[in-house]
Structures are given as structure tokens and as C-alpha cells.
Design the sequence.
């Protein structure tokens, strides 16, 4: 969709890229087609590891943060409004006054609201609508101070979060239910898979019996918060795709609250991929504790990967699932 809108804007002559200089592309998702841009001039800027890995594999220059200045910037609008504003403010800062800023997004991601906000700031944007979204471009200018990233913000429990991360406003109720439901004995080596800003890790490390904990998180902003929230030396932090990361040796337990959305659409396959990854990293006697929304059909995936599956507890919104004796570990011992 971005490619279609960008192609129309460029081919019509209304939008003209600078003839030279680097082009920063902020927060594109894996699978976004950027081939209409000159690849040798593009730097993809993303802190989400699966997207970073995908564009690196496609031979794009990638970075977690801008590096130096750019002739133009394309911002792929995220769902979180504060994060979108912060990316636009950052893009304007690295392009400099008068440089080209391009913003693209779907209606479902809030592009109409962002357009109103820009006009409210006196920005005279050019706009092209197509495929249930808009592409907007304008000359860079300083954005208001309250649009810039605020950095870590305090929430209940003495934790900090940041705009755009999962559960940025406070402790996620599903994670709280999972933490409250965990047994006193979890094993010596644990993994917090998709650990976010570190709430579950902090609760796991309340147990003296835990000797080490690997917190695996794809969102670097969330991982930075986790490093602030979890100072226990038993914790190790990994910026990685939780569906493909593996520990050096099999672990005793995995705890997780897996994501189940791709954009705005529910996608249980994400949770299923987390389940498969968890099974692959456990010892033969290892256990998985996970929380899921009540309506998500994860039991079949758990049964596919574990010999024992049960619901420990729950309420009308969430269920706490326990899976034991991973089948992949059993097959390893037979070889």
C-alpha cells in the first residue's frame, strides 16, 4: 500500500525526492516494499528486531537510531499516536529545516488524525489518498516539544515504560495474573520470552531458587526499559526475535505473555510460534507457563508440542496455561 501511494506521488511529479543524499525510512514493517526508493541511499531505522533482520537480509543499510543527517525521511506511521509524533519530530530533526518529510499510513493507524495535527501546527502538507490510507509530504520544520520522545516514564510499582511499547501505561493485567499464578518453584534457568519492559522478569526474580533468567524481547525500546526495571545480576537481556532465539543449553522453564496482533488484526499464529519456540528450548522435564486471552485457541498448538497441557486458573478475560514434557525434548533424548 505504501509503495502504491508513493509510486503515484512520484510518478505524478508532485513529490520529488532530493537528487542526492541519504533517505531515512523510519519504522517500516517486514514485507514493506521499498524498491521504488534508491536502495543505495536508503537507511532503514527500526528498533524492532524482526523488521531489522528482514531489511538487513534484503541488503538495506539498517540502524536502530538515526546516524547523522539525511536529505529526506519517510516515516511509516505506527499505531501509537505518541510514537508517531515522536518519529516525525525525530525525522524533522535529522533532515533539518526545509528538508523533505514523507509520512505514510492507513486510516486504521490514525493517518487522518495525524494530518489534522500537522495542519494544527501550521504545516501546509501535500496529500495523496489511496488504498484506505494517505501519503503526506511537507518541508521539515521543528515539531513542538511535546511531540518529541519523552524517554522512560514512571508507572505503578516503581517501573518505567516508554511510548509505543506494549502496555506503556502500566502493568498489563494479563501479565499480572500470570505472575500472581506462578508457583514458588520454577527451576534454576528460566526464559521470559517476549519479556517487554520487564514486569514478568522482575516477578520471576523474586524467587531465590532462580539462578539465571534470559529476557528475550524484539522491541529495543522495551528492552531498554527492562534493563532499567530489572537490575538483578541474574538477568540477561537479549534483543532478538523470540520465535527464533535459542539459549545455549536447554532451560528449566519458560514464562510468557505472547503477542497476538499483527497491526490491528488478531493473529494467533504469533502465539503459536512462541509456543513452538518455547518447546524447542526446554529440557525434557521443562515447563511452560503462559497467559492468553480467553478466546484464543492455543490448546491445540500446546498439545502438538507438549505431552501435558492444563489450565491452571483464569477469569472471564484470561487463562493461565501450563504445558509440560515438551515432545521435541523427548525426541532429542531418543536420538
Sequence:
Amino acid at each position: 500500500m505504501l509503495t502504491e501511494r508513493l509510486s503515484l506521488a512520484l510518478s505524478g511529479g508532485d513529490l520529488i525526492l532530493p537528487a542526492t543524499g541519504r533517505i531515512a525510512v523510519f519504522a517500516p514493517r517486514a514485507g514493506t516494499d521499498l524498491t521504488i526508493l534508491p536502495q543505495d541511499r536508503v537507511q532503514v531505522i527500526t528498533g524492532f528486531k524482526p523488521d531489522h533482520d528482514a531489511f538487513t537480509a534484503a541488503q538495506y543499510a539498517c540502524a536502530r537510531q538515526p546516524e547523522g543527517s539525511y536529505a529526506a525521511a519517510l516515516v511509516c506511521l505506527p499505531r501509537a499516536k505518541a510514537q508517531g509524533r515522536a518519529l516525525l519530530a525525530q525525522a524533522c530533526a535529522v533532515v533539518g529545516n526545509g528538508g523533505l518529510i514523507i509520512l505514510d499510513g492507513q486510516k486504521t493507524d490514525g493517518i487522518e488524525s495525524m494530518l489534522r495535527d500537522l495542519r494544527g501546527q501550521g504545516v501546509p502538507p501535500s496529500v495523496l489518498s489511496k488504498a484506505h490510507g494517505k501519503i503526506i509530504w511537507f518541508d521539515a520544520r521543528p515539531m513542538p516539544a511535546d511531540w518529541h520522545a519523552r524517554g522512560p516514564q514512571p508507572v505503578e510499582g516503581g517501573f518505567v515504560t516508554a511510548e509505543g511499547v506494549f502496555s506503556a501505561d502500566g502493568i498489563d493485567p494479563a501479565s499480572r495474573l500470570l505472575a500472581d499464578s506462578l508457583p514458588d518453584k520454577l527451576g534454576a534457568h528460566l526464559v521470559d520470552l517476549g519479556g517487554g519492559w520487564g514486569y514478568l522478569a522482575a516477578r520471576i526474580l523474586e524467587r531465590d531458587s532462580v539462578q539465571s533468567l534470559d529476557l528475550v524481547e524484539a522491541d529495543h525500546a522495551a528492552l531498554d526499559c527492562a534493563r532499567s526495571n530489572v537490575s538483578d545480576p541474574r538477568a540477561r537481556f537479549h534483543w532478538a526475535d523470540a520465535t527464533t532465539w535459542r539459549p545455549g543449553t536447554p532451560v528449566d522453564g519458560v514464562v510468557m505473555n505472547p503477542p497476538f496482533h499483527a497491526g490491528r488484526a488478531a493473529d494467533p499464529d504469533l502465539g503459536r510460534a512462541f509456543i513452538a519456540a518455547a518447546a524447542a528450548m526446554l529440557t525434557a522435564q521443562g515447563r511452560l507457563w503462559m497467559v492468553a486471552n480467553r478466546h484464543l485457541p492455543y490448546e491445540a498448538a500446546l498439545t502438538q508440542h507438549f505431552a501435558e497441557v492444563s489450565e491452571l486458573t483464569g477469569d472471564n478475560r484470561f487463562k493461565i496455561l501450563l504445558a509440560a514434557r515438551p515432545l521435541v525434548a523427548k525426541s532429542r533424548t531418543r536420538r
About this structure: DSSP finds ten helices and 18 strands in the chain. The first strand starts at residue 23 and ends at 26. Residues 45 and 296 are 33 Å apart (CA to CA).
